[in-house]
Amino acid sequence: MKIGKIVTIGFSLHRPEMVPLITGYMQTHEALFLEEPPTIEFGRMIEGLMSVDDYLMTIDTEYPQFTKIMCTALREFQLEGKKIFQVEPYLENLLSLHEFFADGFRPEDIVKNTLMYPVYLAERNATGALLAYYQTAAGGSFESTVDAVKRFARTDAARFRLRDALRSQALSSELENFTSAFIEAGMMHYPLKRLLQRHASLPTPVRSVFLADDVLKRLGQKGHLYGPGDQLTLLYIFHPEITGSDQETLLAAKALIYSKIVIKEELHANVMPFPHLQDELLCIEAIRNLSSNDCRLLFERIRGVRTPDARRIVGEFVMDISPRSGQKLKKWTPSYFNPN
Fold it and tell me: What is the total count of domains within the chain?
């Protein structure tokens, strides 16, 4: 079997500042496998038959600036002769589900021995748990909201496990015609490496790179970029049977605070080097030493406020309990860390 001699999985964030690092790895590989479902419009865009801006109008992207910059780079790779594929069976079946329901069909009409059925169940469970979390967070107690975070993280972990299983199976049959392949993956898809190695008869181990680690080294920082909610989800991904531990409760409590202070909007890299990564590092540091009781007190103070106010409240609180963290949180004062 002519399987790829080099297979690299690049775990990264979908942030504009990461594009040069991602494309740097892509440049050294013959085939590129993107983490998205295949579409006709994408093929037309990279062939130059549709502008990038027109293509962006056909898709629903959470990160438009990142997507635009990536599309421009992928068009250049296409001209260089690289082979580019969109491989994400879970999202492909999810799109098919949307079309299925738009045509007037109901959940009970889904054929159970098709891939659409497990995708439907995973999406239904995760979406239901997320809605329940939003409802609880709006007016429920701290304890009930923490429990809602745990329930959502558990269903989200099940969704990730299915996504990675489906994608590893699809990728394993696509790699054999290339001497080198780069696989794009979000940071939550770490199990993909192990699954792919299991499915494919690779002559060498799959190489994995965490692109954010390169940034941390450049910034002279140590640590990781997994917030407490991501850590909780990863805990359930690798240990689905775990339940009732203090670790789960503390991570869920910290996730309530972290989600209120981290910046969600896309920031421009001209603000400062790697603005999103630096902000996420700052927020991770801010909640690092919080106890469950600290989170309880903060939750009541920041539940109904906007991000800038939540950052101020948490910053003041952390400075009171941790001088070291307080010094770091002074970085929150520049305007680019306080979006309107």
Answer: 3
Rounded CA separation 123/145 (Å): 21
Task: Tell me how far apart the alpha carbons of residues 279 and 137 are, in angstroms, rounded to a whole number.
Answer: 24
Written in H, E and C, the secondary structure of 226-290 is CCHHHHHHHHHHHCCCCCCCHHHHHHHHHHHHHHHHCCCCCCCCCCCCCHHHHHHHHHHHHHCCC
CA-to-CA separations, 281 to 63, 107, 260, 276, in angstroms, rounded: 20, 42, 15, 9
Please give the chain's pLDDT, 340 residues, in tens. Answer: 344 478 999 999 999 999 999 999 999 999 999 999 999 999 999 999 999 999 999 998 888 999 999 999 999 999 999 999 999 999 999 999 999 999 999 999 999 999 999 999 999 999 999 999 999 999 999 999 999 999 999 999 999 999 999 999 999 888 878 889 999 999 999 999 999 988 777 667 889 999 988 888 888 887 788 999 999 999 999 999 999 899 999 999 999 999 999 988 887 766 678 888 888 988 998 999 999 999 999 999 999 899 999 999 998 898 765 544 444 444 444 333 444 3
User: Which structural domain, as residue segments, surrounds residue 313?
Assistant: 228-337
* Helical pair 142-172 and 89-102, crossing angle rounded to 10 deg: 110
- pTM beyond 0.70: yes
Q: Are residues 69 and 214 in the same domain?
A: yes
Residues 235 and 330 in one domain: yes
What's at 40, amino acid-wise? I
Handedness of CA 303, 304, 308, 314 (dihedral sign): negative
Is residue 71 helix, strand or coil?
helix
Class of residue 264 by CB neighbours under 10 A (exposed 0-12, middle 13-18, buried 19+): exposed
Buried b (16+ CB within 10 A) or exposed e, 74-98: bbebbeeebebbbbbbbbbbbeebe
User: What does DSSP assign to residue 36?
Assistant: S
Within this chain, do residues 81 and 178 fall inside the same structural domain, yes or no? yes
Alpha carbon distance 91, 188 (integer Å): 15
